Amino acid sequence: MDLEPVTSREIRTARVGLRLSIVVLVSVVVSVLLGILVGAVGLSAGSVFAELADKVPGITVDSGLSARDSAILWELRMPRVVLAGLVGGMLAMAGAAFQGVFRNPLADPYLLGVAAGAGLGATLAIAYLPDQTQWPISPLPIAAFAGAVLGVVVTYVLGRSGARQFAASTLILAGVAVAAFLTATQTFVQQQNTDTFREVYSWILGALGTVGWREVVLILPYVILSGGTLLLYRRLLDVMGVGDEEADSVGISSAAVRLAVVAAATLGTAAAVAVSGLIGFVGIIVPHAIRLVVGSSYRLILPLSLGFGAAFLILADLIARSVLAPAEIPIGVVTAFFGAPFFLLVLARSRRFS
Amino acid sequence: MRRYSLLLALLLLAAACSGGSTATTSATADTTTTTAAETTTTEDAGFPVTIEAANGAVEIVEKPMAIISLSPTGTEMLFAIGAGEQVIAVDEFSNYPEEAPTTDLSGYEPNVEAIAALNPDLVVVSDDLNDIVAALTAIQVPVIHHPAAITLEDTYTQIEQLGVATGNLSAAAALVGSMQSDIEGMVESAGQLGAGRTYYHELDGTLFSVTSETFIGQVYALVGLENIADAAGGAESGYPQLSAEYIIDADPDLVFLADTKCCGETPDTVAARPGWDQLTAVADQSVVPLDDDIASRWGPRVVDLLAEIVEAVLTLEGSTP
Amino acid sequence: MSGLRVVDIVVAYNGTPVVDRISVDVPSTSWVSLIGPNGAGKTTLLRAMAGLVPYGGQIEIDRQPIGAMSRRRLSQMVAYLPQRPILPEGASVFDYVAIGRTPYIPYWGTETPEDRAVVEKVLDRLDLREIADRQIASLSGGEAQRAVLARALAQQSAILLLDEPTSALDVGHQQQVLELIDELRLEQGLTIISALHDLTLAGQFADHLVLLDKGEVVSEGDPSEVLTEETIKQYYHASVRVTMEPDAGLSVIPIRPGRAVRRTGR
Q1: Is residue C122 part of a domain?
Q2: What is the DSSP string of chain C?
Q3: Coil, helix or strand at residue A18
Q4: Does the CA dihedral B309-B311-B315-B318 come out positive or negative?
Q5: Are residues A332 and A203 in contact, defined by beta-carbon separation less than 8 angstroms?
Q6: Domains of chain A
Q7: pLDDT reported for residue A12
Q8: Does C221 contact A at CB distance below 8 Å?
Q9: C253 forms bridges with which residues in the sheet?
Q10: Which of A172, B306, C98, C236 is most open to solvent, judged by the fewest CB atoms within 10 Å of its CB?
Q11: What CATH number is attached to the domain comprising C94?
Q12: Does a structural domain hold residue C239?
């Protein structure tokens, strides 16, 4: 380690600089473009760009696309890509926030019962709510959302009964217990209603296919609210890195920070899960990969997770719908396929260093 | 088609011998007794038409020549009403008739872009999975959602609607008419014979069955057969899972296997199951293998299914077919 | 310049009092060290002073009860260094020390240039400027302890609560760190309250000792008054010799009576 005289060198705390911002932006733009250009129906790049240009106020271009092809672009592909971006960014940010607030690189919102709760809600909706097409709005996302939030609330209530209220380890234990119980209940319900097995299973594996912009509009306010809150807390997540006791001693309430971050992250994750099912690994892979490159400051990791999480899931979705076309691999399977080798890589690296 | 006509003739003979009234079979071309289809015209070339399917009103502007079917039953119906030449692609499980252009499109995980890439002007589906109906509607492809029939009337309605939608109305009407009269004929001849007899319909090797509330259960009920699964736990779902004990205890007169193609079950494999040799049906060789596809669809071949059931009942009664 | 006073402090875990009616007066700029056997309540008392555990009784800083203060205000007056500080994975020394500025940064805000200047000044003072960009987890014991001290100093609080600040260090670093603390105390008018189990170091550096046993104060005063062989025997159940030499200061030497020096050879 060379120790050059540092009298003139300015030392700064972590901040997303211009270079990193550009890299993130480019990644997102490239992944969006790839997402809307690739699909079973061949749309030429030129006509797609013309369609995009036409939407810019003040510019009118005729792309030459038929009404059907234009509908495919704007009603199927574009909303799907945007949804993937929102869900990916949200899950990555929520994962990073959980890792910060529990000081554990493997933490993510699914830990506190979000996944199990959403799964149970969705299963109950699919099994017991008759003929969902007759409802004005589909009850499935609502049930999943309610289940997710309920899972976390129960975890928190249980987490109070520990010796140190709301201590990290107590909450995690409570979360494991709640998740186990909810999953068992879900399995029981499924057994009683085996004709809905397939539908439940395909929901659980995750799917970003969407028609129209309704789901994007549904999830957008949650992502903005949740993501905005988490970004506000990014410096405090770094402070939480010294542990609850020392964080309290420098003037913040670690329990209050944990509660706020968990609440915000859960809200956003529940919304994401409600529209897209259980897509795993995003909340762990993306922040971890970012950590390997830019270090452990959440002031960098959180905003970068938003951008890279979006790009990652858009590309994963692209793979999901292209590799076995016309069949689609469930997106949860694709992210899991990324997850396994990623962890092996991290394992190899840590072995080398120890 | 020939097989069941022969059977029909023999039934008439049996009916005549047993002193029952002679069944008359007259297929009338204009039997449109219980159709619920709304049509704007009864002519074949009367487009545009609107039909009322499960996804609401579907307007078809002109005679479709690029039909895609993601419903195996829908495929059978389309080909049976003479619309086969208008069909460009069917899903991977549409295996009947053989000339149907099977592709690797999936009816369970329909991919709207893959479908759109083939440029269809009409799509027929039996399940609305992956929001496929909404997706196709969004890109302005006419789609007809014909879910699984609950009664025979639904089958007739679907056939007639497809006739209207594809410009084959008279062929559709004829098919419905002949189906109805064939079925009526079989019911008249054999309906009394099945009364009081019990049966077990097996869906798979884990002993899932159907109740008489299901479509297929109603077909059995046409010849008076009683379903042992009606009293089982879980019967509310229509598809209860029975146990070996339950079946052996109920000792059905007839066992129908709808898992011959999927799971390789045959009367021999059933007889080999531990404890099953006690069943009367096994001892009397009244275990009937069915074609899985025919037993799970609600198309024109339901007549074939009924014929097999009737044949089994007759064998039971000692009358040789 | 802040004096701290605790009056009749009681801290109980699960109904059992760990600190049982302790009163201590710490004059401004003095160095008071808590000593006592394991489990005497030293750490708990320090944590109560830092507002980290609920307590009965009264704690005052400059006559102001701390119970009424917000956590933020309290941390601007009191800095707490635990026995085993947690060093965040992947943090640089600069970022770690900057955490000490938290009491002054708006909740959702970031550091100002003034905050950064404070951090750099502290790094300079503790000879950490050259390794400011290094990962804190990669530092040696002595460097890490200086970094933790730097974080406390960055808090710019007048009172420092130090729980065993030297137990993980070798004898050289122990002296270094404690000398540094004493220098800073005189430089900046700090008030130091430490918990030390090394009686020699406690005797050499603190102005005033408070001996705790089973949650109570059993002896307090000048080190030479408190550190007697009888007292240490009574409460530590240890055999020691206490020496006071003019050019070496006070020493508490553990002895092993009745054991002759081994001779080599057979």
Answers
A1: yes
A2: ---EEEEEEEEEETTEEEEEEEEEEE-TT-EEEEE-STTSSHHHHHHHHTT-S--EEEEEETTEEGGGS-HHHHHHHEEEE-SS----TT-BHHHHHHGGGGGGS-TT----HHHHHHHHHHHHHTT-GGGTTSBGGGS-HHHHHHHHHHHHHHTT-SEEEEESTTTTS-HHHHHHHHHHHHHHHHHHT-EEEEE-S-HHHHHHH-SEEEEEETTEEEEEESHHHH--HHHHHHHH---EEEEEETTTEEEEEE--TT-PPPPS--
A3: helix
A4: positive
A5: no
A6: 18-348 (1.10.3470.10)
A7: 62
A8: no
A9: C241
A10: A172
A11: 3.40.50.300
A12: no
Sequence-ordered list of residues with C-beta below 8 angstroms from that of B168, at least 6 positions apart, any chain = B44, B81, B82, B83, B162
A39 reaches B (C-beta below 8 A): yes
Radius of gyration for chain B, computed over Cα atoms and rounded to the nearest angstrom: 21
pTM: 0.83
Could you tell me the fold of the domain covering B178-316?
A: Rossmann fold (3.40.50)
Chains A, B: CB pairs < 8 Å: 74
C194 and chain A in contact, CB less than 8 A? no
What is the spatial distance between Cα B181 and Cα B203, in angstroms, rounded to a whole number? 29
Q: How many domains does chain C have?
A: 1
Asked if the model's pLDDT at residue B308 lies above 70, the reply is: yes
| Lookup result for tokens 């690296």 | A349
Whether A68 and B116 lie within 8 Å, measured CB to CB: yes
CA distances A225 to A228, A265, B13, B42, C111, Å, are 5, 10, 78, 57, 24
Rounded Cα–Cα distance for residues B128 and A193 (Å): 19
Give the CATH class of B49-167.
alpha beta
C93 Cα to chain A: minimum distance (Å): 10
Q: Is C8 left (phi over 0), alpha (psi -120 to 50) or beta?
A: left
Amino acid in the structure at residue A348: A
ipTM of the complex: 0.89
Same fold for the pair B49-167 and B178-316: yes
In chain A, residues with a C-beta closer than 8 Å to the C-beta of B134 are 211-212
Best of C86, C115, C136, C155 to disrupt the A interface (most A CBs within 10 Å) is C86
Contact A321 B111 (CB under 8 A): yes
pLDDT in tens, B240-288: 889 999 999 999 999 999 999 888 899 999 999 988 988 888 888 889 9
What is the full DSSP assignment across B52-107?
EETTEEEEE-S--SSEEE--HHHHHHHHHTT-GGGEEEE-TT--SSTTS-B-S--S
Residue B21 has pLDDT above 50, yes or no: no
CA distance A277 to A204: 5
State the Cα–Cα distance between residues C31 and C33, nearest whole angstrom: 6
The kind and range of the H/E element at A83 are helix A78-102
pLDDT tens-place string over residues A298-318 = 999 999 999 999 999 999 999
How many other CB atoms sit within 10 Å of the CB of residue C255? 11
Instruction: Summarize pLDDT for B185-243 with one digit per residue, the tens.
Output: 988 887 677 788 899 999 988 899 999 999 999 999 888 889 999 988 878 878 888 99
Contact (CB, 8 A) for A148 and A118: yes
